[in-house]
Inverse folding.
């Protein structure tokens, strides 16, 4: 419950920034570039979670974890590798114009779109530990896919799981 409330507070802070009339700029490889490393978790120049893919194809742990978590819970509707389905839109397209706060809000609280005689509903995952404990991981995986740095399929190589990831997982999952 605490994490859901924290996510709701984050959504209230970040969501107005995205709907204030300013168009969200498209994410690019340059904007997504990792400039800071905090125990294996990478951040872009604005302090948002991002990915790090080495020249040999090795992805950081969080991107690999995001791939795994996405394919455990999200691909059922949004298709493999974020390419969409007849049921839900391709996230590799929508992520290009979606900031981190909006992503958190939509995943935690859900969203309902009605138009053209069609209703689309994204359920809330704010109480699903298999999703909310790994929101940053899912975000960085989808971000890497959206800007074209991560190819389709399971990453061929991954970095070792950092202690910070182990600690966060134990804390969030209650272990």
């Amino acid at each position: 419950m605490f994490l859901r409330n924290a996510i709701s507070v984050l959504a209230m802070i970040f969501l107005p920034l995205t709907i204030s009339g300013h168009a969200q700029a498209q994410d690019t490889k340059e904007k997504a570039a990792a400039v800071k490393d905090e125990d294996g978790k990478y951040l872009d120049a604005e302090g948002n979670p991002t990915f790090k893919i080495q020249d040999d194809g090795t992805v950081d742990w969080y991107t690999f974890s995001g791939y795994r978590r996405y394919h455990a819970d999200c691909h059922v509707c949004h298709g493999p590798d974020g390419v969409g389905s007849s049921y839900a839109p391709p996230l590799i397209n929508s992520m290009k114009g979606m900031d981190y706060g909006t992503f958190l809000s939509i995943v935690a609280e859900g969203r309902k779109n009605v138009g053209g005689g069609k209703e689309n509903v994204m359920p809330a995952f704010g109480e699903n530990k298999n999703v909310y404990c790994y929101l940053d991981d899912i975000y960085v995986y989808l971000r890497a896919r959206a800007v074209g740095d991560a190819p389709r399929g399971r990453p061929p190589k991954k970095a070792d799981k950092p202690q910070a990831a182990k600690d966060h997982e134990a804390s969030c999952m209650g272990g």
Summary: Residues 2-173 form one domain. Helices lie at 2-18, 61-78, 91-94, 100-109, 129-132, 135-146, 163-173.
